[in-house]
Amino acid sequence: MQAPKGAPNILLILIDDCGFGQYGTFGGGIPSPTMDELAAEGLRYNHFHTTALCSPTRAALITGRNHHSASFAGITELATGYDGYCCILPRSCGTVGEVLRQNGYMTAWIGKNHNTPTWETSKAGPFDRWANGMGFDYFYGFNAGDMNHWDPILFENRDLVPKSPDPNYHLTTDIADKAIGWVREVSSISPGRPYFLYVATGATHAPHQTPKEWIDKFKGQFDEGWDKYRELTLERQKKLGVVPKDTKLTVRSKGLPAWDSLNADQKRLYSRMMEVFAGYAAQCDYEMGRLVDAVKQLPGADNTLIIYIAGDNGASAEGGLEGSLCENLYFNGFSEHWQDNIKAIDELGGPKHFNHFPAAWAHAMNTPFQWTKQVASHFGGTRNPMIVSWPARIKDKGGLRTQFLHTIDIVPTIYELSGVTAPRELNGVQQKPIEGVSFAFTLDGAAAKSNRKTQYFELGGNRGLYHDGWMASSPSFVPWDPNRGEWDPDKAAWELYNIEEDFSQANDLAQQFPEKLRQLQDMWWVEASKYNVLPLDWRGAIRMNAEAMGRPSLTAGRNKMTYYPGTIGLPDAASPPMCNKSWTITADIELATGNESGMVVTHGGLEGGYGLYLKNGIPSFVYNFLSIDRPTFTARERLPKGKTKLAVDFAYDGGGMGKGGKITMTANGKTIAEGRLERSIPIQFSLGEGLDVGTDIGSPIDFTYELPFGFTGKIARVEIKLGPVASATVK
After folding, report:
1. Contact of 425 with 338, CB cutoff 8 Å
2. What's the predicted TM-score (pTM) here?
3. Centroid of chain to Cα 507
4. How many CB atoms neighbour CB 232 within 10 A?
5. CA distance 196 to 405
6. d(Cα 198, Cα 112) in Å, to the nearest integer?
7. Residues forming a β-bridge with 458
8. Are 24 and 229 in contact (CB under 8 A)?
9. Does the first or last residue of the chain, that is N or C, have fewer Cβ atoms within 10 Å of its Cβ?
10. 249-271, pLDDT tens digit by residue?
11. Across the chain, what does the average pLDDT equal?
12. 9-14 and 304-309 beta bridge pairing
C-alpha cells in the first residue's frame, strides 16, 4: 500500500528518565545543543505529560491509549493478573508502527523495548509481542528496563548480537550508529516511501555510565549542590520563557535532605555522581545530534517530522537518599550508604558499577516541580519537555506551546499529520477507540486552546486528575524507598492546584476549595473505572519477584532444568528462579589437559547472580550479592583429566526471604570446597541478564576474568535442581 501523498518522514526520539529541568533547552544545567537546534527551528511544548514510569508511558506512546487501557499499569517486571496490570499489550490496541506499516511506511524501532512481557523475551518466543511483531520491520536494541552501557545484551530483530570488539564501545553511540545506518539504507533503497523511525535511548536511565572525557567536562560544576541548582535552573527557565515569570520554586520534597546538612565527604561524593550523570546525559544529546544531522542530509529532509521527547517520566529517585552503586539493590528492597559508596568514587561511570545518583539530584533535575519519577500525582513525575520540528510545515520557528498534552496524544497527532485514518479493525481485531486527542492544530496556533479537558494519572497508588485547568493530586509512597507498608487510598490526603495560575504546583488550595477538590476526586474514580485502573495495587519490591506474583514462566511447575552448550542470553525471567530456596547445579564436563579455563554456567552479572568457572583447571563458585559482596568458594586442587560431574549445592536456611545457607562444591561426589552464604538475594538476581552456559555474555559476575571467558573444555550438560520456595515475607 502506498503512503498518503505528501506524508512526512517521522523521527520519534524518546530519552529515558529525564527531568523537566535537566537539559539546557528547558533551563537545566546540562548542555543540549541538539534540542536547542530543533527548538530554534520548531516548537517547544512545556505542558506535555507522561505517566511517571517507563513501560506505561511507552505503551501509551505507541498505541494512543491510556496505559491501563493498554494493560501497562507498571513495568513488565511488575505484571500481575488484572486487566490493566498484566503487561500484555491487547490486540485491540494496535501500535502506530503496525498502522503506519500498513499505510506504506518503512518502520524501525531502535534502542529500548520495555513492552514485551518478560516471560516472552527468550529465544523460545513467542515473538508476536517483540518489536517486529508490533509492526516494526526492523529492531535493534534490548528487551529490558535498563541495560549495561559497556557490556549490553542486544538483539537485532530476534537474533542475539555478538559482543562488540571495539574497546571503546558504548551503547548510546551504538544506538545512534544503527539508527543512522538504517535510515540511510532504506532511504537509498526506497526513496519514494516515507519512514517511521522510533529511537528510544537507554540513557539517561541507570546505570549512569559514560566515557571519562564526558564526565570530566562537568568537573566542579555541581559543587554548590542541588538546592542552588534548583534556584539557578528556575532563573534560567524564566529567562528562556519556558515557565511563566511568576512561577514559584516548590519546596524540597518531604524526606529529602538540604545540601547544607551534608558533610564534606557526602558533598564530594554526590557532586561526583551528578558530574557522571551530566556527562551521560550530554553524551546522549550529542549522539542524537548525529542522528538528526544524518536525517537532515537525506533527500526530503524538509518534509521530516521530528518529535523529541526528553523523558518517559521525570528524573529517577531510585538511587535512594544516599546514591547507589547497584540499582538492583533498590529493586531487591535494600538501601545503600554513602560511607560504602565513596570508596568507589573514582570508578563511577565505568564498567564496574551500575551507579545512580541520589534522589535529591533527581528532584533537582525536575525543577521547578515537586517529586520525581513514579509520582504520577505531581508534575515532577509526569511533565517532560517536548520539541517538534517540521521545516516544511512549522512557520513559528522557536515558538512555545502551552496546551495541556499527554503521551496518548502523540499517536492521533501522527495519524493526522501523515494523512492516516486510525483503523476500526486491525488484522481482524476490533480496535479500542484512540483515547488521545490530536494536537496537530498547535503547529499553526500558539493561542489555540487545548483540546484535552480531562486526564487521569495513576502509578503505584499515586493519583492525579487534571480537569479544565485544575489538578487534584494525591501522592502515596516516597519513590526512593521500594518497601511499602499498609495504605488506605480512601484515607490518603489530596492536594488541589489551579495550574492556570500556578505552573509548578506550589500553592495547595485544598482547604480553600473543598468542593472543587471533591469534584475532581469523584472524577478520578470515574476515569479509573473507565480505563481499567482498578483494583489499585501499591505493593513495592515484592512485585519484582515473578514466582511470588505467579507470573507466567517457562520454568513453572518444574524443579529440574537441563541446559546444553549454546544456551546463552537466556533472560532472567526465563532462567531458573533460585531465590529463597535450596538448589543444586550439576555440570557434566570433560577436560583434556586438566588446565582448562572458562565459564561453565552463570546467571546474572555485574548487579547480582552467580558464576561457576574454572581457572587453569581449578573450579570456583562465586555468588554476587548485588555487587556489594562476592563470596567465592574455590577448590584447592585442579580437576583431573577426563569426565567430571562438578556440582554446587546450596542448602537454604529457610525462615523467610534472603536468608543464608551452606554451599558445598563437589567433584564426582567428593567435597572440594564448602562454606556459608550469610545472606542471599531475595527478589531477583538481575535486571537484564540471565543464564549462559559455556561463556559469559553481558557483564561479568566478578572482575577476575576477561569476557567472554569461553570454556576451553567440553560441557555435556548443566542441570539445575530447585527445592521448594521458603515462605515469603512480603515487603
Report:
1. no
2. 0.97
3. 32
4. 17
5. 22
6. 10
7. 463
8. no
9. N
10. 999 999 999 999 999 999 999 99
11. 96
12. parallel
